[in-house]
């Protein structure tokens, strides 16, 4: 698979690429839980990436059609926590909905009035702000890199997915006492890979399938003799392995996401074939490998569903969590209590339904949790992100033959990136995947793949490094 480019063109971005790759790898490995020490250290790398990428973009010829979009994701990630941490005069702070009761309690305790902030948990919000520097930095740096370098980062994500899936299978074999579990609070005895939560592993693996399918479609389009192409074999085997590994997690959400992902990947492959991709040999390869993958996936998925006799203890509580979260958010009246305040606000409900047996640290519906923590502004930012992804997907589906450079030669990868982002958004309705640094950073890379290079590349070199 062509990941390289001309040495002369790659040289200005080689240092930025390696810094991005190191940060990305560390975020993938250490970001499967929440609040680890390495995550705090990664924030410094994220900040360095942002500065290096901003310097690269500001000193290079840029594409005007993309220059205005490149700052949207970093702004969306950093704006809300920054605003929530701004000190406010006591008189203004008490006017914010949901603060008057707290202010009265502080006054009755003899605490002198002072400055406050939008957020009720400044330390938690600050931690989220620092963590957001990593995906923001990876996104900015990836848009400043060449297309071949972005595809190399995508390859790293796929390798990580395979390694994490393999570790998950080993965890099942070794049982609850396996030394391969990295986190104290985890699904012991289940496949979690390098994550703390089996649902996050399942969702991540499902979200990598359309990307792998897009790379396979691009490979077949440019190298039609698939039977003689090692990369076609590797990508096909990877798709089957990741699909089967999703079923090993015993995650109901994972099963559902897998089915949606398989359908999306099949549509992507069929559309790529219909748009003049390869030769009859390549089409036959797609049919045969698709049939084999489909049979294995369906068989093992059904087996996993039948074998899973014990349900997730939270499966029957998700709607209760959603209802309680919306109830807890009512005093904020659309302003939110601050990022990272879910547990504090949820405990204030005070009724028996808030106290359920399983350990609860999130609403398991990131949209209602965002409403509680960020209110209207968070809802606007989330809606804008979904609209932009959907618009980009629509553009590539309707005008696939009219693109230039990277868009024309690697539209399969771009379609896969859009579908993967939508899968992560779908998963967020029943869980909190974007609260983990691994998936957050992976999503940022996918967004950069969709946008493409913001730095202009000479026309003579577009086919090499786009």
Summarize the structure.
This protein is 68% helix and 1% strand. It has 466 residues and is mainly α.
Keywords:
single chain, mainly alpha, 19 helices, disordered N terminus
List the helices and strands and how they pair.
Layout: H1 7-30, H2 37-58, H3 64-67, H4 72-85, E1 87-88, H5 90-95, H6 100-108, E2 116-117, H7 122-144, H8 147-174, H9 198-222, H10 230-248, H11 252-274, H12 280-307, H13 318-329, H14 342-347, H15 366-398, H16 405-409, H17 411-427, H18 437-451, H19 462-465
Antiparallel strand pairs: 1-2
Helix pairs in contact: 1-2, 1-7, 1-8, 1-18, 2-7, 4-7, 7-18, 8-9, 8-10, 8-18, 9-10, 9-11, 9-17, 10-12, 11-12, 11-17, 13-15, 15-17, 17-18
Descriptive notes:
- The chain is mainly alpha-helical and 466 residues long.
- The chain has one domain (13-88, 117-309, 359-465).
- It is built from 19 helices and 2 strands.
- It has a two-stranded antiparallel ribbon.
- Helix 1 (7-30) packs antiparallel against helix 2, helix 1 packs parallel to helix 8 and helix 1 packs antiparallel against helix 18.
- The longest helix is centred in the C-terminal third of the chain and has 33 residues, at 366-398.
- The chain is globular.
